[in-house]
Amino acid sequence: MDKNFDEWNKFKKVLNEKQNIPFSNIREIWWCSVGVNIGTEEDGKNELFERPIIILRVLNKNTLRIAPLTSKEKSNEHHFLISYLNRTGSVILSQIKTISSKRLSRKLTRLDKKQFEKLINKIRDVI
Prior knowledge:
This protein has helices at about 5-15, 115-125; strands at about 30-35, 50-60, 65-70, 80-85, 85-90, 95-100, 105-110. By secondary structure, it is of the alpha+beta class. About 20% of the residues lie in helices and about 40% in strands. The chain contains 2 helices and 7 strands; from the N terminus they run H-E-E-E-E-E-E-E-H. The chain has a single domain (about 5-125), classed as SH3 type barrels (Roll), CATH 2.30.30.
């Protein structure tokens, strides 16, 4: 599969200059420009190189710990099944990372506390 690293690098420069950093909080699900990545690391899609993510921790207003989501329903050691906005998807536990808040595009929703607590417990078990 061909990956468009050149277009991602151009867009990444635009993101880096972004001045309006959105306010975000834990449990929120956002569209996020995760980019084009190496090998089996999760890539974004469309012209903004986006995919949905869940915010696991706000380290400061500029830095977040996140996990990407997939629309595929998987429940195993590396995935955690969640429901939001009348859809089901999976948190990709093996792809947790720290990102700049500049990558956030638009907020989708906020995961309910009960599901989030189960997710955090699953992360603790995996790590």
